[in-house]
Amino acid sequence: MNGMAHLGVGIGWRPEIADAVERLPGLDWVEVVAENICPGHLPDPLLRLRERGVRVVPHGVSLGLGGAERPDAAKLAALGERALALGAPLVTEHIAFVRSSSPALEAGHLLPVRRTRDALDVLCENVRIAQEALPVPLALENIAALVSWPGEELTEGQFLTELVERTGVRLLIDVANLHTNRVNRGEDPFAVLDAIPLEALAYVHVAGGVERDGVWHDTHAHPVPAVVLDVLAELRARVAPAGVLLERDDDFPAEAELAGELAAIRGVVGPLEAVALAPAGPSALPRGDAPGTAPADPRQRARVGEEQGALLSALVAGAEAPEGFDAERVRVQARALAAKRAGVVAKLAPELPGILGGEAPYREAFLGYAGSRPMTSGYRRDALDFAEHLLIRDLPADPAARRRLTAWWQDRAGARPPRRIVRWARALAGRAA
Length: 433
Fold this sequence. Notes:
By secondary structure, this protein is an alpha/beta fold. The protein is built from 16 helices and 14 strands. It has helices at 18-23, 44-51, 73-86, 117-133, 156-167, 175-185, 189-195, 226-238, 255-269, 298-316, 327-348, 351-355, 359-370, 379-392, 399-412, 419-432; strands spanning 4-5, 8-12, 29-33, 55-59, 91-94, 97-101, 104-111, 138-141, 170-174, 201-206, 210-212, 215-217, 243-246, 275-276. The chain has an eight-stranded parallel sheet. It starts with a strand and ends with a helix.
């Protein structure tokens, strides 16, 4: 898809604020989490926005292009389908890893790529694979991080610059993440802005967070602070982006507050310009003809996979922090991941807190489960595994709640759930009746 695209000022579309988003004055575009929509069954509020001419951009969170494995073809195809269904000018993802294959673990979160030559070579090949599979241009977002990798070989600016030069990929710069990394990793956001190729900028994210005990948590559940708007102003002083987007994922405020945050963003960025979204530079050349586009050596993938597996094991499986990491920061990140995991499961399976007697007992039970059972297959499977974990232990203690949990599990375990669990669950339901 060649040509120019003007996005303007927009907001992340979420079902919880769909009605408010439709009423926001002067809204130019929205971004949707790609994995949360089905191309053949787009929500009516989203369809109405499209009919009004509001652009919709899908934002992926599960590819893990910074991971040691090559991108999953099915995930790439699904992302491309959503782009076509939405008539999107581009799709976006993250410079991050989200899983490891040895051991097989899922983070349920975006984790930072170690800025080494090995990791960059792997990332560049994965990006080229994604670009060739997707029907529209790709832009990648810098992420926020609580932990720092030891022994990094490149700065953030060097890493992003070489990524763009070798692949032609566009950048989605999150100014809130730049501020997060200033607090958590001591990285100067203005130095990053000075070092990266802003001519590759697709658009910008703005979001809120909160600082606790010297750690900045990129929550997307708090108002955008002045320090983040200051970083946005510094970016705007260097370039006129095609679009700026407000992200809010939880603790949604009143409609007037959302409108006020958008107005504040408009006050900082002023008029925005159209930019070319077609890939440029090396990515326009045949594969293998551009400098630095040779496939990653299998030994590089193995080394990256070993490093990422060790960190992920410490974050979600109770292993010790790998050598060179700040062990306390790893523990903070591990607690944050467990809390996020509990929250996402509660959203996907809102019956569980009710069955277990409320939010507090649900979270206590889930965090006890999560400490010994790392996620391996996504949040929906995690909800079922959590229910099985409780039922196998004759929990919850209240017979009526146990019957409800048994029925809930049976309704969702699928056509052919594990026979041992089915027999046991039926026997338990009979005993509790």
